[in-house]
Amino acid sequence: MKRYQAELLEQRLPVLRDLGLECERFGGRSFLVRSVPGGAGQEQLAGHIHELAELASEDSADWEDHLLIGLACRSALRRGRDLGTDEQRALITALAAVSAPAVCPHGSPILLHYSRTFLIDKFDW
Q1: Whose CA is closest to 74, among 101, 96, 42?
Q2: Higher pLDDT, 121 or 40
Q3: Nearest to 17 by CA among 75, 90, 67
Q4: Is residue 125 very low, low, confident or very high in pLDDT (cuts 50, 70, 90)?
Q5: Between helices 49-56 and 3-11, what is the axis angle to 10°?
Q6: Structure pTM?
């Protein structure tokens, strides 16, 4: 991390704290991360701290948007992961509460609608 990035990151620590990323300057251009946002995907975030710090220290006006997308992406449930019934219900409930439930932060579809006609046509029901 370059000096100007470290300065930007230090100025943005209150914003990071509000997002659940507890960080503090640890001398020079080093930072100590004390916690990441809780909830599903928390373990995955720990492996991406360096990438998230890079996003948080971007010298751009939309750094916060990039960081939020990075947090969402890196904490997301991955394809193929088995979910218990309670996890499935929690996921559907959370999905119903978002403003754009049809796409991931990168724009890839997560919900698809197949009509009865489509299914009959494709599967000869």
Answers
A1: 42
A2: 121
A3: 67
A4: low
A5: 90
A6: 0.67
